């Protein structure tokens, strides 16, 4: 058995096919081809509004929350797991940030509380998965409702509004237009870009990243090779929770309040973005760049359908078809394995 450059393990007879085969080329270029097709289609349909710099920047800004949370989901899915509770975690983090600000504390403490809250939720999920030895789907399906209920309980089933003085702090302006022209994008976009680079570096240049790919490729083999599977899984879910905490802070900045009902259904967008970006639900495969592309495809479709006045029901069917197509391609890529 050999280890590829991304840290995943592939069998020796399949090494050449994995590197040069048509399936591998499709896996690498598929998300980019999909992005070009989506942008090209809506540019033709709306030549005066869709391909403008302002609209493309709008799409990028509104994809920041999904991309940030999807970075953690990428690590989870590469390891062969899944997290259905990330949307509920984001909602809880917005409530935590707003509650700290309402208590008269600093924006820095509010941001820290959001990240720590998300990390604690991820740590709790990781511990449940490793200790109970139940499928991540079952565990996170249960925590999906439990965390959402906790967010509503902490917020007393209402919005958590912050004092007027904090509405102009940096914590409330992460997605606001930049104050300096040279910045090009809001602070939240640059924060997302930094986290993307950090995650890519972790996945491809650290032992932790190699362990993530190894567990997703073959957990039993990884254990026999000395990979601390349980500890690594806990770290993966804790890190993913921290990313959800950052996404929650950005979501709070967009709304300027804590909302226990926000991000409802966002977990499907996040998982879809990772899968559309080329990650395999079987584990062992996925990239940060693919996740970014998948997230932008989702937001571009949403933006384009809105511009064409497509009914929301039809937009949901289109999104569902894209997800099914991405999963079908993933199945075809692994059909011979």
Explain how this protein is built.
The protein is an all-alpha fold. It has helices at 15-20, 22-45, 53-62, 64-78, 86-102, 107-132, 136-154, 187-205, 207-217, 219-224, 229-255, 266-276, 288-307, 312-333, and strands at 2-3, 9-10, 160-161, 257-258. It has a single domain (2-333), classed as Orthogonal Bundle (ABC transporter involved in vitamin B12 uptake, BtuC). Strands 1-2 form a two-stranded antiparallel sheet. Strands 3-4 form a two-stranded antiparallel ribbon. It is globular and about 55 Å long.
Quick take:
The protein is mainly alpha-helical and 337 residues long. It has 14 helices and 4 strands.
The radius of gyration over CA amounts to: 20 Å
Task: Give the name of the CATH architecture.
Answer: Orthogonal Bundle
Sheet with the most strands? 2 strands, antiparallel
Termini separation: 14 Å
Which structural category fits the helices and strands? mainly alpha
Helix percentage range: 55-70%
The CATH class label is Mainly Alpha
Average of the residue pLDDT scores: 88
Number of strands: 4
């Amino acid at each position: 058995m050999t280890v590829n450059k991304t840290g995943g393990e592939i069998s020796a007879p399949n090494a050449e096919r994995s590197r040069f085969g048509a399936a591998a080329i499709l896996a690498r270029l598929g998300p980019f081809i999909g992005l070009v097709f989506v942008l090209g289609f809506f540019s033709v349909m709306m030549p005066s509004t869709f391909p403008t710099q302002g609209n493309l920047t709008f799409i990028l800004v509104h994809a920041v929350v999904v991309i940030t949370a999807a970075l953690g989901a990428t690590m989870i899915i590469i390891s062969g797991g899944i997290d259905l509770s990330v949307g509920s975690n984001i909602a809880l983090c917005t409530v935590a940030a707003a509650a700290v600000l309402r208590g008269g504390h600093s924006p820095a403490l509010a941001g820290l509380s959001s990240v720590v809250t998300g990390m604690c939720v991820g740590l709790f999920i990781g511990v449940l998965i490793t200790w109970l030895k139940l499928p991540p789907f079952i565990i996170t399906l249960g925590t999906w409702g439990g965390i959402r209920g906790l967010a509503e309980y902490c917020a007393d089933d209402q919005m958590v509004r912050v004092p007027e003085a904090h509405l102009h702090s940096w914590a409330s302006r992460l997605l606001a237009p930049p104050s300096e022209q040279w910045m090009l994008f809001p602070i939240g976009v640059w924060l997302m870009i930094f986290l993307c680079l950090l995650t890519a570096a972790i996945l491809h240049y650290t032992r932790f990243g190699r362990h993530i790919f190894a567990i997703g490729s073959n957990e039993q083999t990884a254990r026999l090779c000395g990979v601390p599977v349980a500890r690594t899984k806990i770290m993966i879910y804790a890190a993913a929770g921290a990313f959800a905490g950052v996404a929650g802070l950005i979501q709070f900045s967009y709304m300027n309040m804590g909302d226990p009902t926000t991000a409802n259904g966002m977990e499907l967008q996040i998982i879809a973005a990772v899968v559309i970006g080329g990650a395999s639900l079987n584990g062992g495969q996925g990239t940060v760049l693919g996740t970014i592309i998948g997230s932008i495809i989702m937001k571009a479709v949403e933006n384009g359908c809105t511009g064409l006045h497509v009914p929301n029901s039809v937009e949901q069917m289109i999104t569902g078809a894209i997800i099914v197509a991405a999963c079908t391609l993933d199945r075809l890529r692994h059909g011979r394995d």
